[in-house]
Amino acid sequence: MADLITRVYSNFRGVDFRGEEINLVRSPDSLNVWKDYTETESIRTRPEMELLCKFDDTIYGIFPFKAGNTEMLIVHSGTKLYKFVENAMIELFSDVKASKSNSFIYNSVWYFKDGKNYLQYDGTEIKEVVGYVPTTSIARKPAGGGTIYEDVNLLSDYRINTFLADGESTEFVLDSKEIDTDYVPEVTVADAAVADYTVDYAEGKIIFETAPEVPLTDGQDNVKVKFKKTVAGYSEKIKKSTLLQVFDNRVFFSGNEDYPNTIFHCSLNDPTYCSDLDYYSEGLDSAMVKGLVAGNNVLWVFKEPSQANTTVFYHTPTIDSEYGKIYPSTHSSIATGCVGKAINFNDDIIFFSDRGMEGIHGDITTEQAVAHRSSLVDRKLIAEPNYKDMILEEWEGYLFVFIGNKAYLADSRAMFTNENHFEYEWFYWELGKTVTCAKVDKGVLYLGAEDGIYALTDRISAVESYWITPKDKFKYPQKQKTSNKRGCVVEATGDIAVYAKVEDTEFELIGEYKGIIDYFVSRIKRKKFKDIQLKFHSQTRFSLETATLECFVGGYLKR
C-alpha cells in the first residue's frame, strides 16, 4: 500500500438522479434534506408539517388577506370559503367549485376565481363581482346614432345610453334590440328620475308620454337610459377561466375550456370591467393555455403541445392611436409545449414540459430558446404519476414543485453551467400528506391537504432523512483500496447512523451515533474494494457538514 488518498465530502449541492457516476458533492439518493440558508449551509433534515387547523374537506386554496388592520387567511375547503382569523374559523361563502382556485388583491379588495365564480370581498361583505355598467353610446339623437363610447362589459348585463333631447321626439331608440324584459329600464331626464314612459323591449325603444325638453346646455346629453341586455355566455368567459395573472395594472384570464386558446383581460385599474373586445387568440390551433406569467416587461402565454408547434406567445404593451393600450400577441421561436405549470422564479421564466423544467433563454423578443433546468431530477420527476397536476410555490429561495406527497426543490442559490445554459441544483422530499395547495405568507409556507392546513414550521419533530455519497473510486478505478483503520471523521449534529457499501453489495451498518453536537469518528473497515459509498441516515434529525475518509491505494483489481 503506497498511496494514501484523503477524501473530504463537503459543500454538498443536492441530488443527481441521473446515475451513480456523479460529482461527489451530489447524492444519487437523498431524502428529506436541504440547505436552510437562514441558519447554515450544511445539509440538514427538513422541517415537519405542523397542523394549523383541521378541516373535513380538501383544502384547495389558502389566501392571505388584510382588511383594515385585520389580518386573516381565507381558506377554500371543499365547496366553501372560510376566513381564519385569530384562531377562529368563520364561513364566508358556499357553493364554490371543489377544485384548485386562484385569487388576487386589488385596491384592498380580495378577488377569487375557481372556474365557476368570480367573487370579491372587502373584509365585510363577500359577493359575486358586480360588473361596471358601461355607457355604450353617447350623444345619441332620439332616432339613434351618436357615438360609441364604451365597450360592452362581459361581467355586466346592464348598459347605459345617453341622448340629446330635441324637445319634440317621444321615441328614443337604444343601441340594442331585444332587451331583457325582466328589468324595467331606469330613465332620467336632466338627472331626475322619470316614470312617464313605456318600453318596447323587442325594438329597444323608450317611449315618453311627453317629449323631454332640450338641454339647458347646448350639446350636453340630458336623457340617460340604463337597460339590461343579456348575451348568453358572456359572463362565463371570465367565470369559467381558471388562470389569472396581474400584469400592467390589468388582470388577464385564461384556462376556459370553452375558449382554450384565448386570453381575456380587464380594463385599466378595474377588475370588474372586461370589455367584450379585450381578448386575444393564441395561435390558430385550439391547444389549451396552461400558464400565464408576467416577466421581462411582457406577458408570457404557455400552451400545451400541438401539431402546429405554436406553443409559447408573449404580449408586449403597445400604444395604439385608436384603441389606446393594447397587447398584441407575438409567437415566440419556442415550439416546446407546457404540460404542467409555469411561473416567474426569481426573474427566470420557466414552464414544465413533458421533459421537465424549461427556462426561456436568450433575447426575449428575437432569439428565444428553451434551456433545460432540471436534468438532475428528470429521471424521477417526469415519472411521477401526477406530474401534470403539480403545484408550484416559491419559499426561502427555492421553487417547490409539489406532486402528491413529493416535493422537488430547485435551489436558486446553487446553479451550475451545463453546456451553454445554467441549471438548478435540486433536493428531494417525501411528506406525510398529499399537498393540495401551497401559499407563503410572512415567511411561512402553508400547505393544504385533504384534512386541513399545515405550516412547514416544525424543526423539532422527528423526520426520517438521509444522504448517500456517490460511488467513489478514489481517483484510481483500476486499483484496489483499503480504508484507513483510523476511521471516518464526520462533522455533524443530531442522531446519525452511518452505513457503507462496496461495489454492488448492500449497505451495512457501521455505527449509530446519538446527540452529536460537533463531530464523531466512525470506524469504517473495508479492504480491497473498487469503490465505496457512505450513507448518513437519521430517524430523528441531523445536519451534515463534512465527512473525511482516507484510503490506501494498492495493486490492480482482480476477478
What would you note in describing this structure?
The protein is mostly beta strands and 559 residues long. It is built from two helices and 52 strands. Strands 1, 4, 5, 6, 46, 47, 48, 49, 50, 51 and 52 form an eleven-stranded antiparallel beta sheet that branches. The protein has a six-stranded mixed beta sheet with strand order 17-16-18-24-20-21, with no helix packed on it. The protein has a four-stranded antiparallel beta sheet with strand order 7-45-44-43, with no helix packed on it. The two termini are 19 Å apart.
Q: Which features characterize this protein?
A:
six-stranded mixed beta sheet; mainly beta; 51% strand; 559 residues; 2 helices
